[in-house]
Structures are given as C-alpha cells and as structure tokens.
Amino acid sequence: MRINEHFAKLPAGYLFPEIGRRVRAYQAAHPDAKVIRLGIGDVTEPLAPAITEAMHAAVDEMSKRETFRGYGPEQGYDFLVEAIRAHDYAARGVEIAADEIFVSDGSKCDSGNVQELFALGAKVAVTDPVYPVYVDSNVMAGRTPAAGADGRYPGFVYLVGSEANGFQPEPPAEPVDVVYLCSPNNPTGTIMTRAQLERWVAWARETDALIIFDAAYESYIADPAVPHSIFEIPGARDHAIELRSFSKRAGFTGVRCAFMVVPKTVMGVDPSGKRVALNALWSRRHSTKFNGASYIVQRGAAAAYSPAGLAQTTAQIAFYMENARFLREGLAAAGFTVFGGVHAPYLWLRTTGGMGSWDFFDRLLDRARVVGTPGAGFGPAGEGYFRLSAFNSRANVDEAIERIRAAFA
Amino acid sequence: MRINEHFAKLPAGYLFPEIGRRVRAYQAAHPDAKVIRLGIGDVTEPLAPAITEAMHAAVDEMSKRETFRGYGPEQGYDFLVEAIRAHDYAARGVEIAADEIFVSDGSKCDSGNVQELFALGAKVAVTDPVYPVYVDSNVMAGRTPAAGADGRYPGFVYLVGSEANGFQPEPPAEPVDVVYLCSPNNPTGTIMTRAQLERWVAWARETDALIIFDAAYESYIADPAVPHSIFEIPGARDHAIELRSFSKRAGFTGVRCAFMVVPKTVMGVDPSGKRVALNALWSRRHSTKFNGASYIVQRGAAAAYSPAGLAQTTAQIAFYMENARFLREGLAAAGFTVFGGVHAPYLWLRTTGGMGSWDFFDRLLDRARVVGTPGAGFGPAGEGYFRLSAFNSRANVDEAIERIRAAFA
Fold it and tell me: How many CB atoms sit inside 10 A of residue B200's CB?
C-alpha cells in the first residue's frame, strides 16, 4: 500500500500533544507539584445551566420512541441554524441564508477540512505565527515541498506578524488563491479593526482571492466598533468563508459543536476558468464525509442563544476576560511586555532576555509549575514569544501571576 | 481561488439526499400519504435506558466545576477505549492495544477520511455494489479520471458482486494498493464467512495490500461461526484497518460515535520503499484534524458495554432482526427473490421483471408509499436490485410487506 508521502513533511508531533508529553514527564518526576495549566486554550467553567437543561431534555427525547431522533440533516437542525442566523448575523445586520450555514462537530475539523475545496496547486497564504492546523492540513494534502531549515514550507506564502505591525500583517503583494485569517487572533490575542478587515476584503476582491476567516473567539470582543463577522464588511460575502465555534463562547471544548458559513456568492474557478460556487462544493463534501453533529449537542448549542443561555455564557466570558486583565496587568507590572488579552482570552508575552520560547516553556514549568504554549510552536515568527490563556479559576490565575513573577524576578 | 476540480467528477448528489429530495417532492404532492421509510438505514428504537442514564450523568458532570471536562484525548477516553478492547476484541481472543483504537464521531467520517493515508497514485479496489462513501471520497481526492458512460471510474478496480458469487466477489487478479470490504454488507445484507475472510487476508499478505474492513453491522451476525472482526483471522493485523460504529449496534445514528482500529503492525510504503506504520500516520491525522468525540457521547457509548447496556441493545438488535425475518419471508412469499437479512438489517431484492432500480423506487413510493434505496445508487452492478432496511416498528414492517405485495401483485 503506497502511503501519502506528504505526512513525512510534518514536524514529529502536533504542538499540543508535545506539550502534554512534557507536562506528563514533569509530573511523573514531580508527583506532588501542583501544575497550573494556561497552555492549551481549554475552558474550565462548567456548562451553563440553560445548556445542560436543554441537553437533559434532548437525552430524554432520545429515550422515547415518539421523540427519538436518528440521522439528522447533515447541515444541522433548523432550530440551531435559525438561532445562528438570527443572533450571530441578522442581529448584526448581516443576511445569511439557512443553506449557507453548516453545523459541524468542531472548528478544528472545519479548519482542517476546508482545504479540500482548494486545487492541489492552489497557493495558500498563512500568517506567522499561526494556528498550526491551517498549515499542517495543507502540508498533508501535498500543497508544498518539505520545510526548509528555517521551519517554513516553500509552498506557502507567509505573512509575518510582528510587534512593528501589531501582529496584523498586510495582504501579500504576490498572487495567492487563499489566505487564512484569525481574529481575535490565536495565538497572539490581537484583533483586526474594521479598517484592517476592509483592507483584506478589498484585496480579496482585487485579486479574486478567498479569505478563510476564523472567528472562533468573536464573543471575546469588548469594543462595540469591532466587527464580529467578516460579513459585516461590504463585499465580503463574495470572497470569504467564516468559521465559528461554541467551544470558547459556551464552554463546548468537550461537547463539540461549531459551524462554517459559506455564502452562495463565493466562487472559485475550475481549470477551464469556469466560476463554481464553493457552497455547492462544501455541501457535497459535508454530506459525503459527515453525518451531522450529535442531536443532544445541537440542542445544547441552540440553548446558548436562549435569553438565559446568553446571559449565563456572557457572564462566563466576562469572568475569563477579567482573568485576562489580571494576567495582563500582573505580568506587565512584573516587567513583561504583553500583547493581546483585551478582546481575546490569550496573552502573548515577549520572553525575557531573548530566551527561546521552548526554553521559556521549560523554565516556566520547572520554576513556576505553570504551563503555557511556546510561541515557536505557532511558527518561526513566534520564537521569542509565549502564549498564556486566561481559561482558569481566579485563584489559579492569581497564583500563576505570583509564581511567574517570582520565577523571573 | 482555484478549486479542487475533482468534485466535478461526482454524480450530482450523494445518494441519500437525492432520495430525501424525491420523498419530499412526493409528500408535498400527497400531504396525507403515510410514507413508510425503509430507505436510509436509520434506527427507530429509542436509546437504551443504560445509555441515557450514563448520558444524563455525564451532562451533570459537565454542569459542575469539579467534574467538568474540556478537551478530551483525541483518540478517545480510556473508559471507552478499554471497554472496546475488552468486549469487542479480548472477549473474542483478539489482542488490540489501547493506542490502536481511535474513537471518532461516526463511521461515515472514518470511511471518508481513511483515504487520506493513501498516496494520490494508490490503486483502490471497491466492490460493486458498494457503500458510496468509499468511492466518492477517493474521487474527491483525485484518484481517478471522470466516470465513463457505464458510471464506473477508470481509476478504480471494481469487484462485481452478483447472484452467481453470492455478492461476495473474489480478490482482484491485478495489483491494487487497497481494497474496501464491508461485512455484514451494506447494501446487500450478505456476509463473509471465515473461509472468505481468510482468502482475503491471504491475498493481502501475498500482494502486500491493505484491507479497509467496515464492520459497522457486526452486531447483527447471528451465526457464532462467523467472525465479527477481521482480526480474528491470523495475519490480518499486518494488513487490515477495521471500522466499527455505535450507530446500528446501540442506536447512535443521531448521537454519533464510532471507532477505527489501526494495528501498529500495519505498514505502507513510502516512495523510497521504506515501510511506514499506518498507526502513526492515522494518529497524526486524527490529532491534527479532529478534537475528540463529545464526552457525553463517549459516556453513552461506554454504557452500551455495561451488563444492562449489553442486554438492552442486544434486545433491540433481536427486534430489528425479527423485522428482517418478517420482511424476508413476507416478500419471498409474495414472489420476490430476496438476499441478505439473516446476519444484517438489510434485504437486497431483485426488482420484478428486470425493472430499473430507480423506476422500482418511484413505483414503490407511488403505489405502496414505501421508501427503499435503488440498487443503482450503490453502483452499476446494483441495477435491477433494491435495498430495504429492517429498521422500523413491527406495525410499519407488516404494513410495508402488505403494501409491497399489493403494489406488485
């Protein structure tokens, strides 16, 4: 059996399993150490009561013949799709049709799978630093030769985020087919303003490119002037696909639900130059390789839009954002240079004294028993930086600040 | 944006959405007609009490900070993996390691995604008739030119199932990299004996090929001499990947849980001829593009292995198999030639008078208000046949038999 040889171009492990390995090794050697995890962006607050009530009710429905549900619609149940349309789009002045929304079991899957729409020869642009799934899924599909000594794949166009540009790189000068953007950004916690989004949409229109817009963290936006959806920018619905998730907005990291919006007006071109609607292609992909998200999970997700669900999840997000503020202020007071953490649950620290980011990881784990994520894990431009997440209890956040301060004093 | 041009090689719609479209059109025109659905293989019995109890308990855990679970292990929780090892494998004398089992959100996803392991140039063999996902996912990946006038893709090797071979074709004479096999078979409801499985494993060993063995219906096997797993055949663990699902064994079509077994001894070859373990590749794929099945769902799946869960789900399967027996006997008495339905919830009818299978579909819908699945939807060799599923209430099954008898009298 001849294997897909492109897997060999990937680094040995996906970032988070490698972090898990190092933490397990540390804990095996230090069984009494109380480690505080601010690494992987995983929520810690329990599900909102409105959501668990809806899930209990759904389990009860599944336990009776009259109300049992088997296969659901692959795109998602109407009750959830309509809630998404109304709350996430219509309420912000954006008209999205029901058949432009595709409910899934998670944004990691969606961001890994979306590249199946692209030609093998499509030129892909990614930011650096970047959420690794965008890169790895395109490597596995064979869209680039092996990485060079600098850790970069020659097949991709890299858009470097730096302190100088506020970690918001400009659109590329060279032609690309597609760019992945993420705002509020994972990993830097920084955000794109309306003007920056407008520049990207104008670029996509000028160059007939596609924007994959990952808005998994949109509910953490604090400034009412900042768009939550790229579709709030006129013209975007001809050139963008948007990814949304319930993971961080409703604590669904272990529950699994997300959705992707593919407007019917977004077109690609086939080899003959004919324009083809990506909505039809994604619909075919979704119905061929996916069988709908769990009914119980979809009922829980829909409950996040109920008045009680909105109030409860909004309070959770406010709690995490208070954590982010404590982290930001505490670490700044301790002398760290800190980015992000205002409209996102992530903080992006400059490591002290130009320390390598994996060295910083090991030092933080060893001296402070705090787990974060090395910036280099998000690409070469992340070297010298470090991501901390605001997902934890207040007590742990306070203690983490004290420990980091002491470890680097 | 240059699109994946291979999507255009697919037929216009995936089979089941096309059936859904025709049924909706019929119901719109005949709003009072009581349609009985024996088409898509969807369960109708409610979830077993042991399963819903476990899911309620899991929802409660998710509602409290101390027991809340965020991201789980991508491969699945130990409590489920261990139950699978013990009940599905060790109890049948098969040793499977925990890190050879990959829990997912459904076998449709697994059977669509598994081809990401194959080289683009890998030669794929499929049976005809066949579960369409095996074919379509390889078409979308670009492993074949467009289909010919006969509906067959020139890039694939087709193994024709016919009445003459009991719908169990022999291994191919020409070299192939990989073959998809499904037993108990979807769509024909027929089964591979131990001797037939042994012949396939011997062929795979001789030709260094890979078998993708889809055992989604194994719990419907009635004959204790028939293997439930291909790994019951000596040597198979060097040459096979197995797919299993909770959909039909525990009524999870709307709940979503499945798993794939990739023994560490299964090897492929890279372009330099080096042997590479598929387990490592699949682990990388799974952890890069998937984020674990829902915790609540995994708790429900594990409960299907508890003593109560086993008893309750076994009774459900026995109920469906009684339906299958009624259908088989009733339709045979009405003059139909019927295959399958003994170790599988599917019956495979020969259409009357050589009628085309979509014509038979329309006639059955129009005259008997019964929905089935046209054999041609599973490949050219399915033309002239028709699939009925045994998933329904006893009353509906009895009525369907009467209506079909009357419609074709």
Answer: 24
